């Protein structure tokens, strides 16, 4: 039963990929989209059944298909682990993934390569399932690399635009840097413990308290954190994620909300028993997470591209999740992953609906007043914006508040940094809302003539996601956390202290709410009351210009990494390679000249051959004689 459901979970998106890649174009856009969506929906149903089973029995399901790698000291199976953690992740990977597929039917309907798009999308989901469900680090690595490949294909889907191609290459290369860390971590762990199976690793480490060297455990944890930083876009490997919006908007929703960027958080949560042995690495994770949240939020303050604002918002929210991980509150980080998946998918798909209506326009300075044309998009977007801003009763309030509570109890400076980032979040999200949906329309008359609400295939996912963004926080209410109880068999430290509500906690909660309202109030004053419109690019000056240009991080990377590497490559290509080529070619010419002379001896004269034979034999005999 479990094996059949697991195979269904895995093979449904694979079947969708194969159908669309070989028959999708001939079948037509409607069938192509329907098959792609149905494939992921089937995976969601299989996940739901398995989820309910594990919820009832509280017993993890491990299925090993075959022995994959066998060395004298260890074996690695091709197997999968369906426990509380992986099934929770699979619920939103396949559930939100299915909604994004449904949305894509309407969004991509005019694209001539729609079947190819759905093929890539199905393949992406397949690899994400593999990443989440693998029962060891090596199977996880297959999914890890697979989502990296699919993100490259999807970000560069409109490959005739060179900027989009460059964004795809950037995402691919920066993730490879992190992947080196993943491989290093796997090799260290295999050397230390002789296995990469998650259950076996946990048993060994918890049973022995680990007798392995603390230095090597820290090295393994650091290597895995570098990998997580690449996948989940943390400083200094975050710059690929904002550029990843070059792909179609549903792709941005899939990558930013439900799948790829959560991989790093999932991996650290899965390996939390190892990270617990490396407190110094957890400190680094917390600091990097808080700084990432602050830096990304500050950049988002002045962006005018609607998707860029959301992209930097994703990086900032991921920073908050890493802050929770670094503080050892894994269940809190997971909670924010879930609520973030709801409201960020809603926000990205909402922005896609706006862009669809505006004929491809993404600059908020050329929008305004869209709420009267797009009521469903507007209402769902407002709900998601309230959720990410941490306003009660919406889901983001509960998860973000827990992160801030944990940070306050463990590290007040980091709490302050996270709180400032949260206020910035409320400001830039409602800056986006006011510039897009309120006041007068600032686009062209032609654009205004075509403004319209999106079709049902696009608005239904928005409604579902807005509902989840509203009620999603109920899974972990203060003092009564279903999520913590559910995760207890996996993560023993349930963070109960974060759910004990006292005077301090109520004060902190009030401070967080007031902070969010202040951010919204400032945005209201600037963009509603005073009806400000952001300046044109050339007129942006001072520190705002520095933020608008993303702190010139890309330019710094170009100066200190890319330019020297290009110069070195040019030197190798123009100087070293020709020189080595000339040397090798010179040897060839010398040998060719000698052989040309040798060829003269090969003239068919038997007497000459016998003479050479005699001389040869004589030389050998003399050599042997002298040797004695």
Notable features of this structure?
single chain, 628 residues, mainly alpha, two-stranded antiparallel sheet, 2 strands, 74% helix, globular
Using only CA atoms, what is the Rg? 29 Å
| Distance, first to last CA | 80 Å
**Helix/strand-derived class?**
mainly alpha
Strand order of the largest sheet: 1-2
The count of helical stretches stands at 26
Mean pLDDT, to the nearest integer, reads 92
The biggest beta sheet reads:
2 strands, antiparallel
List the helices and strands and how they pair.
Elements: H1 2-22, H2 24-27, H3 29-57, E1 61-70, E2 75-82, H4 84-107, H5 114-133, H6 137-155, H7 162-193, H8 198-208, H9 214-231, H10 240-243, H11 249-258, H12 263-270, H13 272-275, H14 279-300, H15 306-326, H16 330-357, H17 375-388, H18 395-410, H19 412-437, H20 445-449, H21 456-471, H22 482-487, H23 503-529, H24 542-548, H25 553-601, H26 606-627
Antiparallel strand pairs: 1-2
